[in-house]
Amino acid sequence: xxxxxxxxxxxxxxxxxxxxxxxxxxxxxxxxxxxxxxxxxxxxxxxxxxxxxxxxxxxxxxxxxxxxxxxxxxxxxxxxxxxxxxxxxxxxxxxxxxxxxxxxxxxxxxxxxxxxxxxxxxxxxxxxxxxxxxxxxxxxxxxxxxxxxxxxxxxxxxxxxxxxxxxxxxxxxxxxxxxxxxxxxxxxxxxxxxxxxxxxxxxxxxxxxxxxxxxxxxxxxxxxxxxxxxxxxxxxxxxxxxxxxxxxxxxxxxxxxxxxxxxxxxxxxxxxxxxxxxxxxxxxxxxxxxxxxxxxxxxxxxxxxxxxxxxxxxxxxxxxxxxxxxxxxxxxxxxxxxxxxxxxxxxxxxxxxxxxxxxxxx
Amino acid sequence: xxxxxxxxxxxxxxxxxxxxxxxxxxxxxxxxxxxxxxxxxxxxxxxxxxxxxxxxxxxxxxxxxxxxxxxxxxxxxxxxxxxxxxxxxxxxxxxxxxxxxxxxxxxxxxxxxxxxxxxxxxxxxxxxxxxxxxxxxxxxxxxxxxxxxxxxxxxxxxxxxxxxxxxxxxxxxxxxxxxxxxxxxxxxxxxxxxxxxxxxxxxxxxxxxxxxxxxxxxxxxxxxxxxxxxxxxxxxxxxxxxxxxxxxxxxxxxxxxxxxxxxxxxxx
Lengths: 362, 268
Ligand SMILES: Nc1ncnc2c1ncn2[C@@H]1O[C@H](COP(=O)(O)OP(=O)(O)OP(=O)(O)O)[C@@H](O)[C@H]1O
Ligand SMILES: [Mg+2]
Fold this sequence. Notes:
The complex is a heterodimer. Chain A has helices at 42-50, 92-96, 107-120, 136-148, 166-183, 194-200, 218-223, 228-233, 265-269; strands at 4-13, 16-26, 31-35, 57-62, 65-66, 77-80, 154-158, 186-191, 203-208, 211-216, 238-247, 250-255, 259-262, 275-281, 286-289, 299-310, 314-321, 328-333, 346-351, 357-360. By secondary structure, chain A is α+β, with helices and mostly antiparallel strands. In chain B, 75% of the residues lie in helices and 0% in strands. Chain B contains 11 helices and no strands. The two termini of chain B are 29 Å apart.
């Protein structure tokens, strides 16, 4: 049974419909992410679970209990705020121990619990420090320790890493994931960073405009986006307009620039129908072949390099395919043995029909 | 020299501001009933006389009692109003707040006379209580004006975090909100206390037989020979005011340092 279950949740701010019929089940011990662009309702959904927002319609249960009328202080959830909300007039230890004020533990046990929480968050010895004098990364750790000391069933995190610089953010991503495995608590993470969601989550809900557009594993979202919007939001995606037409009793994908090929079997199963369609192809599914190199399997097309962006480990090329209306992007790992192509170079691209993603038009 | 004019202006301004106050202790120790130069000999006699006047003691006591209660009540009302203004949206909010702030700009004599009429109509006898009511009326706008910024700058997520960690609404207010707005509360208490202490017009109309210090002093001016005693009293009051202000500022700085806030002026 799901630990958290939302059914038909609607939330209005005045006349603005912020959450539109959210249905969601989150399992115990899951690392779950809410991903979406700014203003799509991620924070609203998180605060609804925490008990700070009250939905107009729908049912929210946590651990089988209906949460209607249950205040944030009586829910088995704890929230790490986007700005961390560290109490500035208290010490680090007082901040971390705040949630234990009402617990029946003895003073000695409380002190021990605080020390353990500090150690778990990598804050050994910081207890007596004044909380207002901490760095961003340390504040984040205090907020985590403070929320986890109560051993909640669910830890809610609202963009906890967005205020950190890139290096620290990557370090904290790994650490958060490790922490989640260690404590085994359900984590629900709000983020607008698709890379972060892919790296950390067991499952991701992609939200647009107050709705869940797709709910899937990171691989599922990346390889099988169910709409153009999701496909474009996650990773880079070449969108190629084309046609599906029947021939000899099977469907043929006719894509200008790539040619006409039989539709791969799993796309047929997807319920494809004849007519105009948009095809998606990830940049890494297209590979540049150096002249005279060994022929890989798959299909080939010729084109001209129009743009090249060097990223150190990778190079991204924009290639105008012969006969295609728009250029495609393809990414290549930079190897010592592989020459980097310049703009204007003629090249041949290999691609695999199995990597095609089909977005029915309309 | 650049800025010389400005420097002279500043010096003159300070002399104008503080000379009368410096004169107070000079005449308080002057051995003559005439308040004029040249000075006579040195005496502490006026202070001794001060200690002997019963009516004066009663007036001081009344004033302190009124000022303490006024400070507490108007600060409490100020906390409620500032909190409501910062946190809640309700119909007619700005209108209501405007009405509360009105006594700030109304001529005090109008307020005093209106209150007198009201109290006489409802048959409330004039006493310290009626003065307190009047003083709360004029001090509350000051309390709100002081407390409003403190509550406005308080981050809502701090309160939400406390509730999220299991605190009740009251616990959150006591443990998080109150400590963080404490400098504002202390300022408000001090300002209200000071305003009430030296308020004359309302006290004059509403005090009945419970004369406050300013009302008592006003009565003493009819007897020129008592003036040096008034000077002695004034010296003590100035000393106490300075002491109070220094204490308040120390408390404020300690609070600011503990929260690591930038020290942005304050009183001194
Ligand atoms: N208290 C509120 N009153 C009115 N509208 C609100 C309120 N809170 C949020 N909204 C609106 O609801 C929508 C969703 O807000 P929400 O904060 O959930 O977005 P978000 O997905 O978290 O965005 P971001 O990534 O920018 O934080 C936004 O359009 C916002 O303007
Ligand atoms: Mg948000």
